[in-house]
User: What shape does this take?
Amino acid sequence: MTIADPRFAVLLNPNARRVSSSMLNRISDLVDPDHLYVSDDPNKAEDLAKRILDRGYRTVFTGGGDGTVTRFINLMPGEAPAASSGAPRIGILRLGTGNAMAEIVSSGDPLTDLRTYVSNPSSDSYELPLCEAEGVRFAFAGLGLDGYILNDFETLRRKLGRTVFKPMLQNVSGYLAATFGITVPRMVGRWVRRQKVMVRATNVGDTAYAIATDKDGGRVERTVRRGEVLYEGPINAAMFGTCPFYGYRLKALPYAGVDPSRFHLRLCNVPSSRLILQMRQLWKGTLRHPGFVDFNVDKVHLELSEPMPYQLAGEAMGYRDQLTVGLSGNSVDLVRFI
Assistant: This one.
């Protein structure tokens, strides 16, 4: 069964991990060719997305990872809630490597989700607020440890991508190899040499809330007014976003979504050894440690004592020694299947 509905389109990134020729053929069986868009050239992907928006589709499914979704979001009308902006709803086909945003709304199987929508177009959606930094909107990002892991993973892919290790580098095993083989030894070396990155996090928005974690979850420990310092001290990571996941169901930001008018800022100074020993709790978002300092904020300015790698929606963005992150005036409606 195919659908020839001008209100519905699919945008595929053929470089995504699971967008094989077989997957493309199966999607083509479900979607009319007039409404299926595939870009083999990253330089033309923006033009393709703009064409989709110009055609006025009510719903657009993106097939790729979080980077594919985020690039499309940033071409949509900004500075308005999803419901009033005239922007399309976004469906996420879980076809990339991390798929953090898909964890919120996808059943887990991209073909099942697409078949479900084709047979009975769903009106069920999840409104996801967004963060914004340097003019780019996103659902999650970070400085430090997660950026190092991403850079080290990309280094492994460049070195081993044409060897027998290629399959390992297309799933979570690749990230774990980068983490334990490169990133953690580097961080341990810095700890031995007592090299610490210091951060000053200042609240530059409305009242922020410091979150204390206890056995019942999170609770507001104190309020922080505009202009006050949220935290000043050593970190190995600063993570922030409105999406609790970092892909593969790693719940890096467990308080994201608790307050729709704020995002979760997590400053981490937990030793790498503790993160490794308690990996299970870390993955589930239940790890408790005084080295986690958590806030719900709507705008924060971060000043670092030295540049740290910056990742945005799972994509390397270079290094930053300062960054201002705020809640965007824009949100997106995601088609929900769970």
Remarks:
- The mean pLDDT is 85.
